[in-house]
Design a protein that fits this description.
Helix content is 50%, strand content 11%. By secondary structure, the chain is of the alpha/beta class. The chain has 2 domains: 202 residues, EAL domain (TIM Barrel); 203 residues, Hypothetical protein af1432, CATH 1.10.3210.10. Strands 1-2-3-4-5-6-7-8 form an 8-stranded mixed barrel. Strand 3, helix 4 and strand 4 form a beta-alpha-beta unit. Helix 10 packs across helix 12 and helix 12 packs across helix 13. The longest helix is centred in the C-terminal third of the chain and has 22 residues.
Length: 420
Amino acid sequence: MATQARTASVSGSVEEQAGELRYVARQPILDQHGVAHGYELLFWNGRDPIVSARSDLATRAMLDNTVVFGLHELTRGLPAFVNCTADSLTEDWVGVLPPHMTVLELASSAEPTPSLLAACRKLKASGFRLALADFTGNPESRALADLADYIKVDLLKVNAIERGNLLRWLTGSTASLVAQNVETQDQYGQACREGFDLFQGYYFCRPEPLESHKIPGNRLVHLEIMEDLQNTPLDLQRMSQLVMCDASLTYRLLRLVNSPVCAMRQEVTSIKTALMLVGEAAFRRIAMLAIASDFSAGQPAEILRMAFERGRFCELAAPLCGLASSEQYLIGMISLFPAMLRILTEDLIRLLPLREAARDALLGKDIPEGVLLHWVVCQEHGNWAECDAIVRSSGMSHEQVMSCHAQAVEWAEAALRSNA
């Protein structure tokens, strides 16, 4: 993705009639195995969340920008759930989108007029899929539910008893059932037991800490490596020996050093050689990538992708706020380590040689060192007003933040491919 417009795969800024489009984000929809099935696209124009698509003008702006940014870049080629109004379907505005990649998401409150039902049938015949959002079982929505490929139920709006009635009402439906706003492991487990197929929310970033959970021995070696990575200059001999204590980590590190992420012009076959050739700053970065990859083993791939994106974004945006790039990279990456290791943040940071400010940032305290992590977490959740407030108070511009986040997304994808 060579230009800013192309790289704006998750954050963007475009002048539109509906207002300046400041942010574009994506929220993953996972299956029961933690594999990403698709992404719902979220847009914000600086005033109202365009994702709600309440107005035709907002929908036009959203569709136009979806085309500009490119669905493939926005969703990695997975299905894109795009919010639409009834008019956008009946007037065929969505025809600008690639049918095989697009799920047209319609509010279940939409009136199932003959023209809307006919439009839905026509669009499905051309390859589009249909999702019905915020489904509550209203009898008037039955005709749309019968056409839907996905039926989404918001766990915050529909209680367990009501969900049970809904699922019985949908017996025989071929639609995939999507649980929305799944934010905890308990909610995820409950939704699984109830029979939902797909899950939207950030429950996978919050694995429940295990009581009296001890970090495995090889993970303690990783923490020791992280401690040594804080030293300047690095002790080459000691670092090489520490890394080679773990065969998996050694393999991952050499894969990353020899990948496009590092852009080496010659093949590297030893840890010590890698450290000398790539330099200390680059070695610290790729060592953290390798450690994060090992920490996330057995977890949904999205948690590793998010850790990579957070770390790289915080690193790139740090100079805009007068912060240290290397420390911000650590803060972004480490922010998801507690979820990966299933321990409390407070317990993890006691094991790490971080400055007090970095520890406070990871604990969510309102300090300058935590500003960028706070922004990226708000961006993931579509908390646009808070994102905007952070940008204004930090003296950054939306264009700068957009560029940093877009570069972070691209870099994270390259790192994941290299790490596979």
